[in-house]
Design a protein that fits this description.
The complex is a heterodimer of chains A (116) and B (117). Chain A is mainly beta. Chain A contains no helices and eleven strands. In chain A, strand 7 and strand 8 form a beta hairpin. The termini of chain A are far apart. The relative contact order of chain A is 0.34. Chain B is built from no helices and twelve strands. In chain B, strands 2, 5, 6, 10, 11 and 12 form a six-stranded mixed sheet that branches. Chain B has a four-stranded antiparallel sheet with strand order 3-9-8-7, with no helix packed on it. A two-stranded antiparallel ribbon of chain B has the order 1-4.
Chain lengths: 116, 117
């Protein structure tokens, strides 16, 4: 069983809707990530949080707004999305990102988003 | 620049066959990390293995084995006696070993493995 959970599993939204994706981990990790994955492509990094602070924003459009309320939770707020934003959104966590080596990232099951 | 190449886009085998998934990487760093992830149709990325550049020992885990060769910049993955449940997309990924917040995973394009009964 994955220790990173994501809700909802599926989401259909119109271009004028506001919705949120939620991610939770209980492994004591201090780094959390959002990825976007299109079909038949590798994941694309969107955001990284380290110790609840935004550490990396990969030039993601402002219609995606991340939030890290505490070390276990990560949200992605969606507003005025476009059909091309339809994808699998994956959350991941790792122990931290400030060590001198790459920590393993553990992924959740993802949210399949369809924007109509 | 860092790069990961998985030359095999799709592989189809019959159950019980052995199959090797290739991964070739490029990096200028002497310290780096290599990963394999499995992504079944359900979508979750499942971590399989992490290897650092100083550890060239091959690894075996059940039916899975990994061959790390720095001389050829390859980190190949072999599934022995494949099963239908092995059907998935497999990603190889690379990360440099620098400290700091800019470290990211560089992903290969993935190899889609179909194991047929």
């Amino acid at each position: 069983d994955t220790e990173v959970t994501q809700t909802p599993k599926h989401l259909v939204m119109g271009m004028t809707n506001k919705k949120s994706l939620k991610c939770e981990q209980h492994m004591g990790h201090r780094a959390m990530y959002w990825y976007k994955q299109k079909a038949k492509k590798p994941p694309e990094l969107m955001f990284v949080y380290s110790y609840e602070k935004l550490s990396i924003n990969e030039s993601v459009p402002s219609r995606f707004s991340p939030e890290c309320p505490n070390s276990s939770l990560l949200n992605l707020h969606l507003h005025a999305l476009q059909p091309e934003d339809s994808a699998l959104y994956l959350c991941a966590s790792s122990q931290n990102i400030d060590r001198g080596y790459q920590e393993t990232q553990y992924f959740g099951p993802g949210t399949r988003l369809l924007v109509l | 620049a860092q790069k990961v190449t998985q030359a095999q886009t799709e592989i189809s085998v019959v159950e019980k066959e052995d199959v090797t998934l290739d991964c070739v990487y490029e990096t200028r760093d002497t310290t780096y990390y290599l990963f394999w992830y499995k992504q079944p149709p359900s979508g979750e990325l499942v971590f399989l293995i992490r290897r650092n550049s100083f550890d060239e020992q091959n690894e075996i885990s059940g039916r899975y084995s990994w061959n790390f060769q720095k001389s050829t910049s390859s980190f190949n993955f072999t599934i022995t006696a494949s099963q239908v449940v092995d059907s998935a997309v497999y990603f190889c990924a690379l990360s440099e070993g620098k400290a700091g917040n800019n470290r990211k995973l560089i992903w290969g394009l993935g190899t889609s493995l179909a194991v047929n009964p």
